[in-house]
Amino acid sequence: MAEYKSKRNDLLKAVAENDKYDQKLIKKALDFATEYHDGQFRHSGEPYIEHPINVALILVGLGMDNQSIVAALLHDIIEDTEVTYETVEQLFGSEVAKLVDGVTKLGKIPYYSREEQQAENLRKMFLAMSEDVRVIIIKLADRLHNMRTIESHNPQKRLDISKETLEVYAPIAHRLGIRGIKEELEDLCIRQLDPVAYAEILGNLDERKTERTEFINNIIEKIKERLTELDFKNFNIDGRVKSIHGIYRKMYLQGKAFDEIYDIYAVRIIVDTVNDCYNVLGMIHDMFRPIPGRFKDYISTPKPNNYQSLHTTLIDREGIPFEIQIRTWEMHRTAEYGIAAHWKYKAGVNESSKMDAQLTWIRQILEAQQDSGEAEDFVQSIKTDLTSDDVFVVTPKGDVISLPVGSTVIDFAYAIHSAVGNRMIGAKVDGRIVPIDYKVKNGEIIDIITTNQQDHGPARDWLNIVKTSEARSKIRSWFKKERRPENIAEGKAILEREFRRDFVFTEEKKEQFIQHFSEVYHCNSVDDFYAAIGYGGILISRLIPRMKDEYNRNYKPTPETQKPVLSTVSPKLVKSTEGVVVEGVDNCLIKLARCCEPLPGDSIIGFITRGHGVSIHKRDCPNVPKDISSCEQPDRWIKARWANRQGDGFKATVVILAVDRQSLLADVTNTLVNMRVPLHNVNARELKDGNCEILITISTEGTEHLKNIIAKLGKISNVFSVERTGN
Length: 727
Hints:
Layout: H1 2-16, H2 23-36, H3 50-62, H4 66-73, H5 77-80, H6 85-92, H7 94-103, H8 114-131, H9 134-148, H10 155-175, H11 179-193, H12 195-207, H13 209-229, E1 236-241, H14 244-253, E2 265-271, H15 274-287, E3 289-297, E4 310-315, E5 321-328, H16 329-337, H17 341-346, H18 352-358, H19 360-370, H20 375-387, E6 390-394, E7 400-404, H21 409-416, H22 418-422, E8 424-429, E9 432-434, E10 446-450, H23 469-482, H24 484-502, H25 507-520, H26 526-535, H27 540-554, E11 580-582, E12 590-592, E13 604-608, E14 614-618, E15 637-642, E16 650-659, H28 664-674, E17 679-686, E18 691-700, H29 703-714, E19 719-724
Parallel strand pairs: 2-5, 12-14
Antiparallel strand pairs: 1-2, 3-4, 4-5, 6-7, 8-9, 8-10, 11-15, 13-14, 13-15, 16-18, 16-19, 17-18
Helix pairs in contact: 1-2, 1-3, 2-4, 3-4, 3-9, 4-7, 4-9, 6-7, 7-8, 7-9, 8-19, 8-20, 9-10, 9-11, 10-11, 10-20, 11-12, 11-14, 12-14, 19-23, 21-23, 24-26, 25-26
């Protein structure tokens, strides 16, 4: 209780010291939260109210506004007490209520998996962020205090929370430019995820603490002396050590020794103007020897979070490397507080255009999730977009485009405009043609080659190549809009095929079942659901296990209610699992001939072999006489027909002729995988004329199904012939 009183007093004192805070309103919220959290305790045993107070203190340190502080004090009140949204709105206003609601988890709603729950929480949070960025700033403060007190949880819980924090929340803090929270979150995560490495780095830093302090102070004094000589008036110099996580990444992810990390020591110089920054840079390079290739100009090319500074790595006379950062006071405020600086220094958001630019990535993530039906895909796209470092590439006109590391020329094309990406047929990097999956590098000039064909669009396999969720969203959007009727038909066919295998429904129940899943996947209609399956927004490989689980729990008929299914074929006429009926033959082995591989829908005939049962051939098979009556052994040829059902285990072989190119075989196999067609054998060979031949053996349901497969394969780029063997 003493700790609670102390924290309460700290908050009230901090609020009283700043004229912009409404002390009466904040105390009202504090008293309200204290009342309703009374009797609640955290895992560590302290009163629960200490947590919202600590979150509020973090936000006061960032200089956030009254509504943010009040919302921080109330952020768990709706989730963990009987207090309603309406009550919060009535007592503290709609602005505070919306902030509290945006931070509140969706923990009370049942979900299919932990991934889905995480995805839905993130969807809601990002949506709330797009309306008011203060939601995520409160959430970051909430997560920071939770990480500071994480030791009270069991080991697995600590690992799960730390992993999520490192993959989602720390990168968000980075995107918002809130350096202090970002670095502390990262260090706290590494402490949990790799305690041995954390202890090793901490030991190395402690071992050289005195040496480090002397070194940094010596550098600072030298620079101060020179700046004073050059008549610089309003400047500040301080030193710091690289964060533990920053050192960890270079030691354990890049394989560097502690002594090989050049920017462990860093000195920061703050001056009045941009001109001063560059003048100081020249002075610094005159004082110390710069390391080639270690200069970065983030003033002319700011980072996506609006961070601006000059970075240069130097070596002093003793041979010790160190980094110097040079920036203006305005740049410094942005670097330290990021988007929170709008509230700390401007008492609100007045520069809406700059704010919009900083939050573009939030809208891109939200747009991407609209075309991503899979919870796992949405979570993964967030992690990919947030955690990647950036590369800076240049358009032919000289514009600089920032992309995540690992981005391809396709990502670059879609970053320029969706129309450029959709009409892209190739790319040049620094004047040379590169493959479509080429990964861009810093400083490269990228020129996208496009076609004037109005109906040209992206290839489906681009979805497996691109890095950014923005590009993936735009590709899916093209297939969604331009091929909607085809996507609906394809999705319906895929689902019907799966239903015939594993589900027994009345039409009414089936419609109800499909409607339910269209809502689960956030589709506006059943047709949208079918279309999403058709264009790959919803992966059938993930959908079907989920459907089976739901079917077994709520729809599967019980033995008492299940009605017997009457076969349309007399059991005594069906002579094999191949679904073939032969005339006048009972209980014999029936095999499908390999020479022609007949399928349901083909006209067939049987041949009585010696000791191997009846071999079933296509009627137009080269091994079948055109005139049975005049052949040598007409009595061994026997009438046969397909049973009045279709199976799904018939093998067929098709031959594909195409222009030989990179990723052709991958395109073929991906097409079959997307159609849920089992693949048994693949044989490819290069032809003399620069073409190639691919023979594939697949399982199919019959001739109509095979025709559909052949049609799909025929649409693959550079394929000019697809035929069934044995024709």
